[in-house]
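Reviewers of the previous submission asked for a worked example of the structure-prediction workflow described in the proposal, so we include one complete record here. The input consisted solely of the amino acid sequence. No template or homolog information was supplied to the procedure at any stage.
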Amino acid sequence: MGKPVTYSEPVKQSGIPPIAIIGALFFIFGFVTWLNSVLIPYLKIACELNNFESYLVTFAFYISYLVMAIPSAWVLKITGFKKGMALGLGVMALGALVFIPAAMIRMYELFLLGLFVQGTGLALLQTASNPYITILGPPESAAKRISIMGICNKVAGAIAPIALGAVALKDADALQIRIQTMTLIEKAAELDMLAGRVILPYIIIMVVLVILGVLVSKSSLPEIDTDTEDEVVAAANTDKTSIVQFPHLLLGVLTIVFYVGVEVIAGDTIISYGASQGIALSTATYFTTMTLVGMIVGYLIGIVCIPKYFSQETAMKVFAIMGVAFTLGAIFTEGYVSVMFIALLGLANSLVWPAIWPLALSGLGRFTKIGSSLLVMGIAGGAILPLIYGHLADTWNPREAYWIAVPCYLFIWFYGVKGYNVGKKVKTHL
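From that input alone, the workflow returned the following structure tokens.
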């Protein structure tokens, strides 16, 4: 392995460009992550769950980020970025393997374990890949590069629910009607057959993840030395002894908690929400894809416009206000119109993630790895907020439960206005 590239110098490309390799990893993130939107209504039927119980799917998956983000930083310190990414893919493959016995015995708790293990692998991958893509060029255009990664991620996410939904939710509407008139034995047999539908897809996912892990480990991806600071950053950080001395980062972590929460709510609840509005599951299966297409449109806007026409923090402010407007639109309408507003939240969410990372990691220098780990921990918002949504959906109704998103978008707006500069000695405008 050659000399590590420092955090402050651009990565030199040889062989397959590093950005292409990271793009492939972001494709995998998206495919595996957005399968959850189908697993929620699928497991709700197969394991006979209520709304709150079905959203434990997102809880099990995203809570792993909270548990594993700091250990991931320790692992990366030992393995380096490239080997750490390969290891993360291997852990994800193990999580896919757990789905096979879970489906065979139709045990919800085992499904949740598989999701937790997959999330653990993703925590390791996210901890490595997000700061990596941030430094592949000038910091002021980092949101543009992350937007490109976002397109890779969301294209995969748009494909995933359609692919799994065609298998797992095939004739699900007719099945729900049939099982109401079945005996307990007949019903159990029918649901066992339904559970078995995911075995082949997850075998394929497991094999693909193993192959990709081997390819990444043998790739030309260079190492990055994030412990070396340039002179300006080092001078600014001379009195820093702990990550908690960077309040703009801590506020960024909280912003990610709220952002991932609303992103997951928009993408993973929309199929079940459509069904609650009287729309057939065979049609609702496509709704998550609509949400992700909205995100892709937003990423394209970011690629073209950042930083040429507007800054990263401006994008965050404007798109957060859009999030408030679309949420209110969903709450105060019904049927397909309401579902359309939820899908439009994909557009509102699109440029928030690309803007948070460079703003929050700005000026961290030798604290970058631990800062990245804390930001990855914030992804646990995808575990907590959808679960609250599920409880509100059971207590109120699925439409009014979307009120949970409004304060989240307002906090995101605050971070774009002021939060990203709190505590900095020199104010930055990226």
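Residues 16-219+230-421 form a domain with the Growth Hormone; Chain: A; fold (CATH 1.20.1250.20). We consider this example representative of the routine output the project will generate in years two and three.
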